[in-house]
Amino acid sequence: MKVEYDRDTCIGMFQCVDEWEGFEKNVDDGKADLVDAEETDDGVFVREVPEDAEFDAKFAARVCPVEAIRVLDDDGEQLVP
Questions:
Q1: Greatest Cα-to-Cα distance within the chain, rounded to the nearest angstrom
Q2: Does 34 fall in a domain?
Q3: What's a Pfam family this protein contains (predicted)?
Q4: Considering the domain boundaries, does residue 26 fall inside one?
Q5: Whole domain around residue 6: which residue ranges?
Q6: Does residue 81 lie within any of the structural domains?
Q7: Fewest CB within 10 A of the end CB: N or C in the chain?
Q8: Whether the Cβ atoms of residue 65 and residue 18 lie closer than 8 Å to each other
Q9: How far from chain centre, in Å, is Cα 1?
Q10: In b/e form, how buried is each residue of 2-25, taking b as 16+ CB within 10 angstroms?
Q11: pLDDT in single tens digits along all 81 residues of the chain
Q12: Overall domain count for the chain
């Protein structure tokens, strides 16, 4: 499972930070950062989700008010609508 995060879409509500330690507040930018993520060519940040963090990662995606976070299974199917 992996998580994709569109940082440009983020509005800095930091709800994801409260739900999963994979996100951290970046108060200088007013946006969250996805820890240990790699940036793709289209500006989306991606990282694998550890098995013990899958529930928290999904919840972080659910609470994002602007849907900047997507959780995908190994086949690329979005798990959280």
A1: 35
A2: yes
A3: Fer4_15
A4: yes
A5: 2-72
A6: no
A7: C
A8: no
A9: 12
A10: ebbbbbeebeeebbbbebbebbee
A11: 999 999 999 999 999 999 999 999 999 999 999 999 999 999 999 999 999 999 999 999 999 999 999 999 999 999 987
A12: 1
Q: How far is CA 79 from the centre of its chain?
A: 13
3-state secondary structure of 33: strand
Six token digits for residue 48 = 């694998």
Q: Can you name the residues that pair with 32 across neighbouring β-strands?
A: 25
Neighbours of 38 (CB within 10 A): 9
Lookup: tokens for 45? 């940040």
Q: Which residues contact 12 (CB under 8 A, 6 or more apart)?
A: 29, 30, 31, 32
Distances (CA, A) of 46 to 25, 31: 17, 16
Number of H helices, E strands in the chain: 2, 6
Write out the two tokens for 40.
């793709």
Return the CATH number at 66. 3.30.70.20
